[in-house]
Amino acid sequence: MTLKHIVNWKLGGDTLEERNAQAAEIIAALEPLIDLVPSLRKINVYRNELFDGDNFDITLIADFDDAEGLAAYATHPDHVAAGAIVKRYAVARVATDFTV
Q: What does the pLDDT average to over 77-88?
């Protein structure tokens, strides 16, 4: 079984160009976590492509073996550092966790 952790962020940039730059910085901070966080099994980070301004701007989909793996990821120093970059730009966040 796999625990899926899905997070969406709305970015605070005033223009599409600003949000694109913010998204690129966030993606660059999050994707390398696959090689840094032992409990992270898979990570994909996507930039929204349609309905700019209406939809959330970034989606993260991460896989873990279980809730303990997600908890270890949440407190891992490299994730905390990446999270600081996300928090710099995000104005809203929604998340869903479920087992498949």
A: 98
Summarize the confidence of residues 37-49 as an average pLDDT. Answer: 98
Q: State pTM to two decimals.
A: 0.94
Q: How far is CA 5 from CA 36, 37, 53, 66, in A?
A: 17, 15, 24, 10
